[in-house]
Amino acid sequence: MRDLNFRKKRRRQANQKRRRKKKQELKFDTGRPELRFRREKTQAQKQNRGEIANWIVQIIIVCAIAFMLVWFFGQRVSNAGDSMKPVLKNGDVVLVNRLVYNASKPKRGDIVAFKPNGNENTHYSIKRIVGLPGETVQIKDGKVYINEEEVTQHIFAEDIEEAGIADEPLQLGGDEYFVMGDNHAGSDDSRMADIGNVKRSEIFGKVWFVASPGPDFGFVRR
Known about the structure:
Elements: H1 2-30, H2 32-73, E1 75-78, E2 93-97, H3 100-103, E3 111-114, E4 125-131, E5 136-140, E6 143-146, E7 149-151, E8 170-171, E9 176-180, E10 198-199, E11 203-210, E12 218-219
Antiparallel strand pairs: 1-2, 2-11, 3-4, 3-11, 4-9, 5-6, 5-8, 6-7, 9-10, 11-12
GO molecular function: serine-type endopeptidase activity; signal peptidase activity
GO biological process, one term: signal peptide processing
Protein name: Signal peptidase I
């Protein structure tokens, strides 16, 4: 009888040990690894979110820079007509620098895009600056005179047949420019009364690049 009770007691103790061991194994296998996995998953998610946010910021910066470059240096304007031959042909697409005249004043010889008389409903006109603010311009005997001195630079014709309103001395205002097309015989410019002098506020920007494909593609030659 005593042996039987002893055996039962031993079996109970053995069963209790096995149950305790099983609980410890379950606790070890399902508890701590799960917490560790969750921590690693959370850290990975935070890292991924940080990388995505960094990419988004970089994309926004690149897009903003590209927009500013296009807005200030790459405004596209189409040249209408042959008034600027041989430098520009009819239909040439050019890029206009809108920023340059915020830092400096337009110069003689610059090719500029402007809206005649500030009329926003008309296309851009592209001409070359010949006369500067405060100067007196006159065309006589087929030559251009600035302050009574003949100008030979930036004039691409030996004899100008049509003097227009510049037949008499023409005084430019403090913000006015006298512009002409390089192909004088086929150009409507400051010589015409309906265009006249171009105000600084009417100048859109400086033409600096020919964007049309072909042999003239590149920086404006003159």
